[in-house]
Write a structure and sequence with these properties.
This protein is mostly helical and 204 residues long. Helices cover 77% and strands 0% of the residues.
């Protein structure tokens, strides 16, 4: 495991994006535990992209404009859906629909998984990123790529949890201030819209 890979992975994962935003919103809404659960969901959402890369399906996605566009449109639609439900729900920052009870662990994980599954940039990123750290003639290239992908997932979970735990810790102070909550909802909704617009503008 090279230092270059670890540093690059840390920079990529720590850069705020949809997964980070979702984890922060879950933590601020439901507490530190929900932040960690959201981090688990976002991490699991990496698995399909990693499998696509390791099995070579990423090459087809990279070459096929139609496949990329379909997945990209689904991702944009889901981000806009997250923005709408975040803005309209005055009881929670992020929900799939208006709920009388807090979302279950399964629901939080599923939403985190969808956030990352519906992001075609992850597959393209893995396709361009992982091979750089595998020698051309290496006999166990697939195993090494899988190991590197596993390290990327572990780093993702640790960084996202590091975002979510402090956010959950200050939740009590935030929830007691309706005006702060209102601005947070607007801020998260605007961020989801901005990320959706950024994804929509992505060509490859």
């Amino acid at each position: 495991m090279s230092l270059a890979f670890l540093l690059t992975t840390l920079i990529v994962v720590a850069t705020p994006g949809t997964g980070t935003l979702y984890t922060l919103a879950a933590a601020l809404t439901r507490g530190p535990r929900a932040g960690v659960v959201a981090a688990v969901g976002c991490t699991l959402g990496i698995v399909p992209h990693l499998l696509a890369t390791v099995t070579g399906a990423a090459a087809l996605l990279h070459a096929g404009a139609t496949a990329f566009q379909v997945l990209k449109c689904a991702g944009v639609a889901y981000l806009l859906h997250m923005a709408w439900t975040t803005l309209r729900d005055k009881d929670a920052l992020v929900t799939g629909e208006r709920e009388a009870a807090p979302p279950s662990v399964r629901q939080v994980i599923v939403r985190g998984v969808l956030i990352n599954i519906l992001n075609p940039k992850l597959t393209v990123f893995f396709f361009a990123f992982l091979p750089q750290f595998v020698s051309a003639g290496e006999p166990h290239a697939l195993v090494r790529m899988a190991g590197l992908g596993g390290m990327f997932m572990l780093t993702t979970f640790l960084v996202f949890a590091a975002y979510g735990l402090p956010a959950g810790a200050v939740r009590g102070r935030v929830l007691g201030r309706p005006r702060v909550m209102a601005w947070l909802r607007r801020g998260f909704a605007a961020s989801f819209v901005a990320l959706g617009a950024k994804l929509a503008a992505t060509t490859r």
